[in-house]
Design a protein that fits this description.
202 residues; alpha/beta
């Protein structure tokens, strides 16, 4: 994941919570370049912070329980998600927080809860950009919008294919819509990736 101050005014075009799905990106810079040409120069200044030195404080344990609904256990100290919580909580208003695949090593139930944390950051002035391959994270963000825990206008999804990038918004009920506020389906190949197998099993 990355953290950087928003020094380029063009980065402000990003929504408070931006989620990217679809085909893999060719590089870290492309994570932003593919979304907006205006972010190209800015993305080069973002520093990678994979080695995060942190202590498991009582505050961090509290947030762990708030997000996942269970008490903190020691093995979680070595998890990727705890580093996400630690760095995210230290983000300042106006900073950009980029997380790649936050679902790594998480149980599906835990994945479905983490949207609560990202919406908290977004509501407190931190711009959050997530690249994910998890349908559960998408659903959790939509659910937070449905609960009115985040303004749906502050959320946008982008699904990348070989040919182009599809932009998807959500309405106040957490449903996918286009720029004309018409209900749409998420682009093919993500939510319906194993539909054929599921129908075969029925």
């Amino acid at each position: 994941f990355y953290v950087s101050a928003l020094e380029n005014k063009n980065i402000n075009e990003l929504k408070q919570l931006t989620i990217i799905t679809g085909d893999s990106f060719s590089g870290k810079t492309d994570l932003l370049n593919e979304i907006s040409k205006e972010t190209c120069e800015y993305s080069k200044s973002i520093n990678l912070n994979t080695e995060v030195d942190f202590k498991v404080t009582e505050e961090l344990k509290h947030w762990f329980k708030f997000v996942f609904g269970v008490d903190f256990i020691l093995p979680a100290k070595y998890s990727y998600v705890l580093r996400i919580l630690s760095v995210g909580l230290n983000c300042k208003e106006g900073e950009l927080f980029i997380v790649e695949n936050p679902e790594i090593n998480l149980h599906p139930r835990a994945i479905s809860k983490i949207g609560k944390f990202f919406t908290f950051l977004a509501n407190n002035g931190v711009k959050v950009l997530i690249e994910t391959n998890s349908r559960d994270i998408i659903n959790s963000i939509c659910y937070e919008a449905y609960l009115k825990n985040i303004n749906n206008c502050d959320v946008v999804f982008y699904n990348k294919t070989r040919d182009n990038i599809d932009k998807i918004n959500i309405n106040e009920n957490g449903k996918f819509v286009n720029d004309k506020h018409q209900l749409v389906r998420y682009p093919s190949g993500f939510f319906d990736a194993n539909t054929e197998e599921l129908w075969t099993l029925l």
